[in-house]
Amino acid sequence: MAAASASRVVAVFATVVCSCPRTGSGTEKKLVSKHRPAIRNRLSSSSDSKLKLFHYNNNINIPTNTKTKCNAVGDSSPVYQGIYGPWTVDPSDVILYRSGLVTAAASFVVGASAAFLPDDIRGLIEQNLDLLYVLGGGGLGLSLVLIHIYVTEIKRTLQALWALGVVGSAVTYMSLAAPAGQGLVQYVVDNPTAVWFVGPLFAALTGLVFKEGLCYGKLEAGILTFIIPAVLLGHLTGLMDDGLKHALLGSWMALFVIFAGRKFSQPIKDDIGDKSVFMFNSLPEDEKLGLIEKLEQQKLGRSLD
Question: Quick count: other Cβ atoms within 10 Å of Cβ 66?
Fold first, then answer.
């Protein structure tokens, strides 16, 4: 019973975060039921002037008097069918999102490899640890700007954590590391309490990989959700010996490479979910009613056919 309840909670959370409900799903029925009384009232009045203000594009079934950007079916971009009508996607946004992840992963792996390499090679990497940190943090920031999470509060929280981590990193470097004659990364390695300042940036990374694991069932992302905080907390508290810390760090590196590489094996549309849901949520309430009314009429027409 508990396992079934947990499974339902995860399924609901995945639907909310990833916005991948199927037509005819419980999500769609709940949305239609929510607006059904208002739709009936509108249909009962033939003199409803507001109803005349809805001008629909015959190709995409989305009101054309909104600010939501959507390409027509005649455009070159592929068209996908969503709950509230067809939608298209700009591949460049997804490619940039994935490129940010690759930049973050590559920077982290190169920097972390210093813990496993001989001294002569390690020295070259250690001289550029802060540069790699900036590149990796920048790549993560780019991905968090372009990430598609349909609950705005969750997206903004991840972005706020990233920004807090960037500010904390800058303050740590200028106030603590630089006066001590050290780089930021080396200072955090030598002074575990500095994790408090840079930690929010890695919390944002953890949230991103959690979203990817939840939405796409990626095992490596799910494992990273636990490894990333485990390494940071182990370093912060001093409760983790160097052997275990290095083992987890090596696992983090390997899984991060797999995670970033596998992003390019996904279809472009999978990083978007059902964009029609996002477009619907951005509409004013009156226009939501109009769109649902039209979809109900289309559904009724098909059933009569």
Answer: 14
